[in-house]
Known about the structure:
Rossmann fold, 2 domains, binds magnesium ion, binds adenosine-5'-diphosphate, 34% strand, CATH 2.40.50.100, 24% helix
Amino acid sequence: MSLTLDKLTVRYGDVTALHQVSLALKPGEMFFLLGPSGCGKSTLLRTVAGFIEDYEGGLALEGGSLKGVPAHRRDFGMVFQNYALFPHLTVLGNVAFGLEARAVAAAEIRTRVAEALGLVGLSGYETRRPGELSGGQQQRVALARALVIRPRVLLLDEPLSNLDAKLRWDMRSEIKRIHAATKLTTLYVTHDQKEALSMADRMAILKDGKLEALGAPRELYDHPPNRFCAQFLGDCNVLEGAVAAPATGSAPGRVRTALGEIALPGEKHWPAGLQVGKAEVFCRPESVWLGAAGSEPPAGAVVLTGQAKVASAAFLGASTLYELALPHQNAAIWHALRHEQDAAGFAEGAEVTVAVAPPAWRLWQ
Ligand code: ADP
Ligand code: MG
């Protein structure tokens, strides 16, 4: 089912929690809404669900307006961060609840509850109460409860944030599997960029109630439209600079920074409308090349001028994260992420050559 939000605005008194947010979810899509705490994610989800009726703008399912349709008539499945299970009911009672409320026949309730519990991997747990389940199992019950009504849209509000890291990872693939099996249009809200990047078909970034970006995970990570989105999606090294000459056609543009001039290829790497003058360039830590002082970088990579030192090296298992002290004070601390198997890498205090390939740079004004 397609779900569209057209200039949705929600206010709580003087606070504008959502400001003219427009989105169009495609049928069967796993769509993520990502943003920091307080940016309006739950407000958006609760409005879609029908719990907030006082809004401006349009909300439609398959082109039909949802205005005035009460929450229980929307047939949307919803999962909350804190599960919101009924503690006094068994797993069976919790999952059957929505069907009983809809006066579904007892025999069908049994079949559908069994089906939903099978889907979330909880067959055999029917008689337990929420207090006798782990956090992950409780979240599965909440998912089964949302799925059992065969919802037209599935709404998930930070469903994994109460779980520990390992379980969160397992549940991610579990939710992806369930999505593949049900093909439900899903709106998934989270503040965790890894969850969004690893699971989304498409995603939107929300800041202070406004939509900042919309796109596929790789597209947004590689080409964020602004600094906020770049930094929210991952670590980045930012350099202040100035556009000396914009790119024209296939000719690279030139940006001056305190660490040397960078020639940036045109097309995708050079946003339209950039003018001569102040700008910022950034690159991701995984695109920074490190070598012993004086060593040759790979062909095409541009060496940053001046001597850099390893300020700290953090061994992360699969990779090592280096903090680099660059010679120019405005460059502050840079990060480089390297995958080193067996190798010793660089010690703290080592002098290093730092280079970045031009296509890895991004630029905005
Ligand atoms: P998120 O889910 O992204 O953390 P919310 O949608 O819960 O954000 O909140 C968005 C903004 O609206 C915040 O500033 C929050 O304090 C405010 N807010 C949320 N719910 C209410 C409410 N019931 N009354 C007043 N302000 C609210
Ligand atoms: Mg919230």
